[in-house]
Structures are given as structure tokens and as C-alpha cells.
Specification:
Number of domains: 2
CATH architecture of the largest domain: 2-Layer Sandwich
Distance between the termini: 14 Å
Order of helices and strands: EEEHEEHHEHHHHEEEHHHHHEHHHEEH
CATH superfamily of the largest domain: ATPase, nucleotide binding domain
Number of strands: 12
CATH topology of the largest domain: Nucleotidyltransferase, domain 5
Number of helices: 16
Shape: globular
Strand content: 15-25%
Length: about 400
Amino acid sequence: MKVLVANLGSTSLKWRLFDFSDGAELLLHKGGFERVTDYAGAIDACLGQLRDSGHLESDKDLAAVGFKTVIAKDVTGCVLLDERVLAAMEAYNGLAPAHNPPYIAGIRLFGNRLPSVPLIGLFETAFYQFAPESMMRYGVPDSWHAIGIRRWGFHGASHKFIAERSAQWLGREDIATRAARLYIDGGQSPVTGPDLRVISCHLGGSSSISAIRNGVAIGNSLGMSPQSGLPHNNRVGDLDAEALPYAVKTLGISLEEAQRQLSREGGLKGLSGGLSNDIRDIQAAAAAGDAKARIAVEVFVAEARRWIGGHLAALNGADALVFTAGIGENRPEIREAICSNLEQLGFRLDPAKNAAARATEAEISAADSRVRILVLPTNEELVVAREARRLILRA
């Protein structure tokens, strides 16, 4: 059984081909194109590379094409991407303008090119469908809630991977099984030991922090849209509701221009005075004495600590703190800053282990740390492929 996972951007196409034959999970091929202007041609070129590499003899060798879809109105989970679901995605284009439109266009092109192959979407919101309602509501009128104004949470594929992998790392196969079967039985698999409380920090160009109890998410720092939560590379993160109308009136700009600035010029880029949206550039400038770059790093760290603290309260402590994604896996200075002066809460880093851990699985906590601190590289594409396979086998 071979599953192709396609990652679609506004100007890019990236893919990974997995083989699940005989119970294996093999990555057979990966590739991608940047600056794409002809998506139909890019899809043909992708399939051509897979044939030329010997991994596909024909389209019939594909069991499914999986997509890491973001959000849709009244739809979540792992689903077949039919016209009803695509229409639900279109209804929420405004909430994910950088994600939904290219995915919808690309999914339709894949459907035209591979009419007999199931197209399956694993929505980023799926991991939070079992969270307590109290963690997912806003204090808005009922009429607002009725039209979908609530917390949804994102980066679900990444945090689900961490839920399963961290449980394996910590010797809790019961929790790993529960996380693996989450979209099959809704988190009803038995837990045979004490609660396992994990705080998962997906820190990268887009960042979020999830609280996970026994393999099931109970909350996420991202809310109704990818604009919320921590400051992202150039998206604002959390913002007071009154800030937007105030900026529109005071700066004399349109609502559309204000939204553009918040999504293109906010976040780390905005905090650093427009210097960069890349944490590496910002850290280098901060080390050289740039005050705006320094505050950008400090705000990012402070917001991460704020969400970790909130999740600690929701979980009544933590057994593990996990760093993942581009910043989480590769920036030991950021990890050190986030964990600094938290010894009373049970967090203590081993400086040497932390400095050595880059893009590899590692435990970076000190021997006397009550909370295990881990670096676990995420694998969102594998999660999408796994769930696509499970959906096919249930069909």
C-alpha cells in the first residue's frame, strides 16, 4: 500500500511517498518544486519522478493521496475530499487565506489527474475535536459561536505525532496506542498506568503549544485562525480584539490592508522592526546589539512560557516537555531561555545535552529534573499517510 502525501503552498509543491506494505512504514521518495506557476505541470512532473525512480509503475499503484488540510466549516478529522468538503474549505478561506485556496486548487488538480485514486485530507483541527468544550470556547454571544467563532487549534498532525512518539520514548505503549487509534475510537483505548501529561512545543515559522493528557489534546495556543497564539514568522499571534478597528481608524487604512499587515508584516518580522522573519537572523542581530531584534526574541520566549504555564495548570503538572519543529529542534538558545528559572516547577535543563541536540531525538533534561525535557523531530507527513491508510482500511 503506497500513499503519496502532497504539501501545497501558494507557489510550491512538496511530496513524500510512503509504502505501508507488510506492516512497514517506508519513505520511498521525497521531492518538491518552488516558485510553481503551473500546478498541473508540477503534479505531472511529481508523478513522473515517482515513475522514473521505479516507485510507481502506474497511477493504480497509489492507494491514496493525502493532504495536510487546515480548516473547513463544520468538517474536521480525516475525511475523503469530495466536493462537499472542498466547499466547506472554501467557506473558511478567509480564516486561512495563505493555506486553503492553494490546497483547494491543488486537490482539484490531483482529482483531475488521478480520478480513481482516493484523495484524503487530515485537517489540522482534527487533534482538538476531543478537547473539553471549556478549553475551546470564546466569550462571544451565542450567535457568534453558532457561526463557528471558537477555538479550533492547529498543527494537529505535528502534535499528534509528538503525543504518540513521546509516549513511546517514556515507555508508555498504552498511551502510544491510544494516540495512534485516536481517530478510530475517539481516545477510548484503555490506559493501564497513571496519567501521562505532555506539553508539546511546535516552534517554527508557525508556532503552537499543546497540552496533551494520555495521548489526547486538551488545548492548543492557536485559536480560531493561524493568526493567533504565539508570534509567528510574520503573523501577529494573539491580539486584543479592539486593536484592529483602532488601527484602521487611527492609521487611516482599510480593513483589508490591516489584515495584510497583520499576516505579512507582523510576528517576528514586525517585532524586529522589519529586519527578518527568520529567528536565525533575528538572534544574530540581537547578539550584535540590535534592540528590536532582542525584544523580538524576548517576546517569543515570554509567550511560549506563558502558554506552557497555562498548560501546566490545566494538566496539574507535566511529565514531559517536548520541543519540535524548526526552532524547537534546532535552536538550543531558545530552548534554554524558555526553560530558564523554572526549577521550582520541575524543569531543569542539562546545558551540554541541550547544546548538542539539533534535529535529532534527545533527552536534554538534567538528571534531577522532575519533568523530562525532550527534543523530538516531528513528522507530519507520516501522520497524514498513516491516517489516510487507516481511513482506506476502514472504508
